[in-house]
Amino acid sequence: MSYPQRSWDDGDVEVVAKRLWAGGVATALVAAGLAFVGVLIINSIFEVGIQTAGRSGALVDNASTVIPIAAGIAALASTALLHLLLMTTPRPASFFSAIAVLVIVVLILQVFLADGSVSAHIATGILYAAIGVAIVSMLSGVSATSVRPASHGGWGGREYDGRYDAGYGAHEPQQPYPPQNNAYGQYGDQRTQRYDPRGQRDQWR
After folding, report:
1. Hey, how many other C-beta atoms are within 10 angstroms of the C-beta on 17?
2. Do residues 101 and 133 touch, judged by C-beta distance below 8 A?
3. Tens-digit pLDDT string for the chain (205 aa)
4. Is the separation of the CB atoms in 29 and 72 below 8 Å?
């Protein structure tokens, strides 16, 4: 018999919040570090400023501090969103990825729609995209290890009702041994008697 995979639709798993948020904090630290390195590369090597996501076209002041902090907050907010989706939606990973991609696209569009140099637009867009992809990829891995089978009895947290197996409960019961007419049965004890090719013999002879 082949058993089905546990699905979130049937409530077969539960969220391990401690593990999820530990992974979220670690993701926030990595995102902040990635943002800090990205700002240093853009400002020091390419000598380009970080563009704000708005119409003003102004550059971010103290970008080496503001951008990493914003990246860490974004990672924690993403963890909260992922936790909510894990508890309420049937396919949390798909919804989380879709929402995150939409947010990243809108943020990058806001950068390119602002006034400023093309180099600042490109550098800032690449930085924001790298931070967003890193957060989504890490939290997707965290979510895969932050769920477990529900612990309250039954198959995957509920009593098995046979709906996954078309033949469940349809097997014929095992037939009992035929009735016996004497102490050893009509033909003797069929479970232990040896086969005699010479035919039936009188056991009292």
Report:
1. 12
2. no
3. 433 334 444 456 688 889 999 999 999 999 999 999 999 999 888 888 888 877 666 788 788 889 999 999 999 999 999 999 988 888 888 899 999 999 999 999 998 888 878 888 999 999 999 999 999 999 998 988 888 776 654 444 444 444 444 444 445 555 555 555 555 555 555 555 555 556 555 554 5
4. yes
Structure tokens at 35: 């943002």
> What's the whole-model pTM score?
0.66
Residue in the block written with tokens 């240093």: 40
CA–CA separation, 176 and 122 (whole Å):
81
